Amino acid sequence: MAEQKQTKQKRPIIDMDIHERVTYDELLPYLDNPWQRYIKDTNWVQEKHLPYPILGAAGLDRADAQVPDGRPAGNDLSFLQQQLLDDVGHEAGILTGAGDPSPSSMNGWYEMAVALATAYNDWQIENWLEKDDRLYGSVHVAAQDPASAVREIERVGSHPKMVQVLLPIDDRPWGDPYYHPIFEAAERHNLIIGMHHQEPPNYYGKFPRYFVEWHSVMPNTHMIQVSSMIFNGVFEKYPNLKLAMIEAGFTYIPAFMKKMDQQYKVLRHEVPWVKRMPSDIVKDHVRVTTQPVDELTRDEFLKFIDLMGSDEIVCFSTDYPHWDYDSPFRALPPLGEDLEKKIFAENARKLYPKLPERKVTQ
Amino acid sequence: MKEVVCKKEELSPGNIMSAHVGPIPIVLCRTPDGEFYAFTNKCVHQGAPMSEGVLCGAPAPTDTPGEYHYEKEGEVLRCPWHGIEFDIKNEGRMIVDSNRKLGNFNVSFEGDDVVVSTKK
C-alpha cells in the first residue's frame, strides 16, 4: 500500500508487538454461562480507567487502519495482512492482544477474568494463529489467581505458535514470589514473559494529569517491573526465563543498567540471592522493543547501543495498528547491515525459543 | 511540473483528498473558507500518508495552564499515525517546530479545474 510505494526495500522482520482486536460478540462463543449472560444481559464491559482521550488523529488507532467495512482496526486478519504483513515483509509477528485492560488488571471478579483469558486464548488460536503462519501468540492469563494462570499455561502453552505469557504492567510489581508459579510454568513450556504497558500506568494506579505525561513516563513503570524481577531473584530462580519489555522504547536502558549496578554494589547485602551484576542479568534475560521510538540520528542511536554494552537487547516492533505505530522503513536511522539484521529480526529470534529458524530464501 | 488534479466541486470545504502531480503523491486540502492548499502526501516524521489524516483545528498556545482556546478550525492537517499537527495556511509548517514543514505545491485554477504545480 502507500508505504510500500515509498520504498522497494524489504527486510526480514520479526515484529514483537501487533495488536489483534476482539469484540465481545466474538468472544461469546468461547464463553460458557453464566459469563455469556453477564455480558449480554447487562452490557458488561471491563473497567476502563483512562481519564483522558488518546490524542492521536483517530484515538487509539492509526487513522488509516480502520477495517474498510467499518470494523475497528486490528479486527480483521485479511486487512492486517494487506496493510502490515504482506507490505512490509514480516517474517513473523507476535500478537500482543487487545484485552484492554488485560484480565490480569481486573480489580475483582477474578472468576470472570479467568473466563475471559481462556476465551481470548481460544479465539486467538482459532482466528489468527491457525490462519497465518507468520503470526505467533501470547497466552493471556488472570494472574491475580496464579493457580488459574498456571492451569491456563498448561492448557494452551504447548500450542506450537504460543510463544509468551503476556502480563500487563500495572500496579503490582511482578517480582513478588506470589507470581513465581507463573514464571515456573512459562519456563517449563518454553514461553517467555512479555510485558506490555497497560493502564493504570503508574505505581499504585495513579494517573498523571495529562496523556502526554503518561506517554513520556512509560519507561518508569518498565523500570519498576524489571528491577522488581531482578532484585527478587526471579532470574536466579528461573535461569532460562526471558523477559520482553514491550512499548517503552529502549533509550532508558543504558542509564538504568548503570543505576542498578551502582545500587547493587552498595546494597547487595539486602538481596544476597542476586549473584550477578544487574546489567549482566539484563544482557542475559531482558529484551526491549524499539517502539515508541524517538527520532534519533544514527550517531545518537549507536551511542545508546554502545552504552548498553550489547547489541542484542533491542528488538523491533511496530505496535500496529495503534496511533504511535513505528514504520519499519522510517522509524530507525540507517544502522548498518549487521545491526539492522539483529534489531529487525535476529535478536527476537534468539529470544523466543519457539520461533522457527530463519527461512532460507534465495 | 503541472497537473489538473480535480474539479473545484470535487473537494468541498473542510475536506482533503489524495492526488498526484506527475509521479508525486500529494494531499489536496480545502479550508472551510474555500481555499486550496497542496502538500506532499508524506509526513516528514515517518512518512505516513497525510491524506489519511484529519483536517481539524487546534488549541492555541497559551500562557495559562488549564486554558484551552480552539482555533484554526479546518486549517490544521494532523498525521494519521502520530497526530503531528501541520498548519496548512502557514506553508504546512509543524506547529511545534516551524522549521519543519511538508513539501509545498502551488495551486491555481483554470476555470473549474484545480491545477497543482511544483514550486520553482
TrEMBL record, chain B:
<dbReference type="Pfam" id="PF00355">
    <property type="entry name" value="Rieske"/>
</dbReference>
<keyword id="KW-0408">Iron</keyword>
<keyword id="KW-0479">Metal-binding</keyword>
<dbReference type="GO" id="GO:0016705">
    <property type="term" value="F:oxidoreductase activity, acting on paired donors, with incorporation or reduction of molecular oxygen"/>
</dbReference>
<protein>
    <submittedName>
        <fullName>Rieske (2Fe-2S) protein</fullName>
    </submittedName>
</protein>
<dbReference type="GO" id="GO:0004497">
    <property type="term" value="F:monooxygenase activity"/>
</dbReference>
<feature type="domain" description="Rieske">
    <location>
        <begin position="3"/>
        <end position="116"/>
    </location>
</feature>
<dbReference type="InterPro" id="IPR036922">
    <property type="entry name" value="Rieske_2Fe-2S_sf"/>
</dbReference>
<dbReference type="InterPro" id="IPR017941">
    <property type="entry name" value="Rieske_2Fe-2S"/>
</dbReference>
<dbReference type="GO" id="GO:0051537">
    <property type="term" value="F:2 iron, 2 sulfur cluster binding"/>
</dbReference>
<keyword id="KW-0001">2Fe-2S</keyword>
<keyword id="KW-0411">Iron-sulfur</keyword>
<dbReference type="GO" id="GO:0046872">
    <property type="term" value="F:metal ion binding"/>
</dbReference>
